[in-house]
Design goal:
By secondary structure, this protein is α/β, with parallel strands linked by helices. The chain has a single domain, classed as 3-Layer(aba) Sandwich (Rossmann fold). Helices cover 35% and strands 25% of the residues. It is built from 6 helices and 7 strands. The chain has helices at residues 15-32, 46-55, 79-89, 102-115, 145-155, 170-177; strands at 66-71, 93-98, 119-122, 134-139, 156-166, 181-189, 197-206. Strands 3-2-1-4-5-7-6 form a 7-stranded mixed sheet, sandwiched between helices. α5 (145-155) packs across α6 (170-177). The protein is globular and about 45 Å long.
């Protein structure tokens, strides 16, 4: 799958966005040889498994000037992919990527420079980071939902939303998180897996 086939999944991108996604994919493959950004076993399915899986979150881009924070960004999934999607579509949307691993943070900064993205990278632990005040917060394959709720409460602005892609156990994670947290949640189907879901959460607060 190449970037010009994102439209087949219902995601239309401009030629410029397509070229940036191709460049990102090439950089990820290059750096992955030295840094474990994604599992090597998934590289053959990079576009569907990682890039499309990240790009589908652009559905949740907010209106107007806003901050999107991505926690545990790793190889830039979904943070860098979304920043590429927003470059032409939502230039007023800025991104803050949080990645404690210094080598991965170096990769993120390199891509940001190469592709001229509206992104800042914070290379410190999430719990040590001053509150971001983000309008939208995301995290992909980072932690159980209960832990993510704690991060969301700390780093979202009042009225902000959290977007958490989850796998087949999303219902169990929601039930477990409700033991400690109160929230409104809506589950959207994933474009990349019938078993996965994208959780759209708001009004998160401790019980």
């Amino acid at each position: 799958m190449t970037s010009n086939r994102l439209a087949e999944a219902g995601i239309d991108v401009s030629r410029e966005t397509s070229e940036r996604l191709e460049s990102f994919a090439a950089l990820l493959r290059k750096w992955n040889a030295a840094i474990n950004l994604v599992s090597k076993s998934t590289l053959d399915d990079l576009w569907s498994r990682h890039i499309l899986d990240s790009a589908q979150l652009a559905t949740f881009f907010p209106e107007g000037k806003a901050i999107w924070a991505d926690l545990g960004s790793g190889g830039g999934l979904p943070g860098l992919v979304l920043a590429i999607m927003a470059h032409d579509l939502k230039p007023e949307l800025s991104f803050q990527l949080v990645e404690a691993d210094q080598r991965k943070a170096t990769f993120l900064r390199h891509v940001v420079r190469e592709l001229a993205l509206n992104v800042t990278v914070s290379s410190e632990r999430i719990e040590n980071l001053p509150p971001i005040g983000a309008d939208v917060l995301s995290a992909r394959a980072l932690a159980p939902l209960s832990a993510l709720c704690g991060h969301a409460v700390r780093h979202l602005c009042p009225g902000g939303i959290a977007i958490f892609p989850k796998g087949s156990n999303s219902a169990d994670e929601i039930a477990d998180a409700r033991k400690l947290w109160s929230f409104d949640v809506e589950a959207f189907p994933s474009l990349t897996s019938d078993e996965a879901a994208i959780l759209h959460m708001k009004l998160i607060r401790h019980v």
